[in-house]
Design brief:
By secondary structure, the chain is of the alpha/beta class. About 25% of the residues lie in helices and about 30% in strands. Strands 5-4-6-7-1-12-13-16 form an eight-stranded mixed sheet, sandwiched between helices. Strands 9-8-10-11-14-15 form a six-stranded mixed sheet.
Length: about 240
């Protein structure tokens, strides 16, 4: 079954700086969804230009776990000769955050949009946080163009909805999504608080999950008169065994 796990949940950050990372419950959930006891997980970090510090931190985070990590970088050039073969051989492909506008543009320049779509159809679990969530949707609100949020409408569009991330964590996020949906820039969609994720089976939202108590997912829709209705969705808290 084509599966996407997208939202505002990611690594657990330790006390030793921004690159002291540990796998989050969302990663473990993605591994369980893959059905593999030793999931092969490939990191895509193009949304921040493939910084070596982040790539190294991803490897360090999964050291000593059952996951078998790898990465695909596109800056300054691909590090893997057979990109299609490598990605189709994964159990999970995880996309880190950053600029969703740059992410989608670079993927298209390298034909990665087509390869990832094939991987999705073949049952590789696709996941991501922030830009790595918006990218699978039609679009969302983004700071790709500067600190003031703007609408982004050039996502891959496999999931026919808009997507809001960091919904409770950044003051602009909720009102900007309401504005963009209300004025028709974006269609109806789903949003996630920090710590929550959306599980899609095919193009249908199957459930909302969270890595702790509190974060939620929301359905955000435009009514006939142009007003916007936000509906909190049932959210299941992941446990270590999940």
């Amino acid at each position: 079954m084509p599966t996407i796990l997208a939202g505002s949940a990611g690594f657990i950050r330790g006390p030793r700086g921004p690159y002291d990372l540990r796998p989050g419950l969302i990663h473990r959930f993605a591994g369980k969804l893959s059905g593999s006891p030793e999931p092969k997980i490939c990191f895509l970090t193009q949304a921040t230009g493939d910084p070596q510090t982040l790539i190294g931190a991803c490897y360090a985070a999964f050291a000593g776990t059952a996951f078998r990590p790898s990465h695909l970088q596109l800056f300054p050039m691909p590090n893997i000769a057979d990109i299609r073969g490598h990605l189709l051989n994964q159990d999970v492909i995880w996309v880190e955050g950053g600029s969703v506008a740059n992410l989608c543009a670079v993927w298209r320049a390298h034909g990665l949009d087509e390869i990832l779509h094939e991987a999705w159809q073949e049952g590789v679990v696709l996941g991501g946080v922030s830009a790595g969530s918006i990218c699978w949707h039609q679009g969302g609100s983004t700071d790709s163009y500067g600190p003031e949020l703007r609408g982004f409408t050039d996502g891959l569009g496999w999931l026919p909805y808009s997507n809001g991330v960091h919904y409770d964590a950044e003051a602009q996020r909720r009102p900007k999504m309401h504005e963009l949906i209300g004025n028709g820039t974006l269609g109806d969609g789903y949003a996630t608080d920090d710590g929550a994720g959306l599980l899609y089976r095919g193009t249908t939202l199957a459930e909302v999950v969270a890595d702790r108590e509190g974060p939620k997912g929301y359905e955000v829709t435009r009514t006939a008169d142009g007003s916007v209705v936000e509906t909190p969705l049932p959210t299941r808290v992941l446990r270590c065994a999940a």
